[in-house]
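Running this now, will post back.
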Amino acid sequence: MSRTVRTFEATITNQRQVCDDLDQLGWAASKLWNVGRYYTQEQWDETGEIPDDGELKDQERYTDLHSQSSQRVLEELAEAFNGWFGKRRNGDDRARPPGYRKHGDSHPRSTVSFKAAGFKHDAQFTRVRLSKGRNLKEHRSDFILCEYQTRPDVDLTEWDIQQVRAIYKRDEWRLQFVCRTTIDPEPPGNEVAGVDLGICNFAVVSFGDESVLYPGGALKEDEYYFTKQKAKCDDSSSREATRLDRKRTGRRTHFLHALSKAIVEECVERAVGTVVVGDLGGIREDDENGEPRNWGAHGNLDLHGWAFDRFTTLLDYKAEAKGIDVELVSERDTSKSCSTCGHIDDNQRVERGLYVCEKCDTVANADVNGAENIRQKVLPSLATDGGDETRRVSSAHQNSKHSGGGDRDNGWLAQPAVHLFDRSEGCFAPREQVANREP
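Update: finished.
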């Protein structure tokens, strides 16, 4: 049994009736942030210390919102200041304290959070009542009654709603329901899959007898496009630059959601109970000489823009819902080792996409070979002595069995299936299907 948390976004169907009241709350949240920001800066200048969020409650703006909503705004402010202070303490002189929330000369519409005492959910009529603060109740209703609509596959009655957030997005207000539930799904099976994350191919999955390759071309195109468009803006903090950043983030997030969903679906279909992911935690770290690792002009740009950690998080919670365990393992030597015989040689990776083993003559796609090595890291050893080698021999026998005993360069190691991101459908599909949809 485990507890899981999900956030579901919903449209507000009575937008015109509630937008003015929600605007008031959004502006009040920005005012509260700005007043707290000013006070915190004063205290920092005088004492060199950051005040606790509790010290910021004694101000008029605090009662514009429900007490729990105001508390959350000040908690976020304190978290932002403490994060900045932590960076400064670690020697980052470029770190800047959190700024004021402003949109030109006016306050923007900030996100407003409602905890348990600040909302009441009516599942029967798909609506939620959001509480106001004392200052905004005068001469108006004490609450805002929002009617909403979620995706057809979302049933909020199955979840325990912990928090509701009102967010202003694409010129309209939307709702986010932060929910929790207890799940205990049966795993699809006992098979193991290995996932290798990279630059050209964002993810490559090995199932032990077949493999699927997920190129990151669509994501890379977006990164280059938005970087180029943002460079045309006169000011990196301008409204157009902010719009481009939000759009890029939204498209990247959708790509990662679609990819993690596609991989989990493939695992369920193949009775996979464990997914092993290569840990890229050290990919941005310095090399053995203390110098920043150089992955080439395109690689350096891509590594800083791609959210490997975000993808792993999405994969983890989607897999959890299907009863699949996700494990992180070291990628050490997985690109140098032969997944068939275990021989290690730095020169075996002949070129970017080709791996040739000089010892057993295995020919493989280099990323698939890495994914298979990652998969084998959690397979049970078949002998107490030389367990890794014995495991590889067993795996090689299995691979040979599935490929009919033919040449390795004609097998699944060298010829993975390729699934591309289909922009028109917003999901991943076999390359042949995507190609047929293109004009």
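The first strand starts at residue 2 and ends at 12. More later if anyone needs it.
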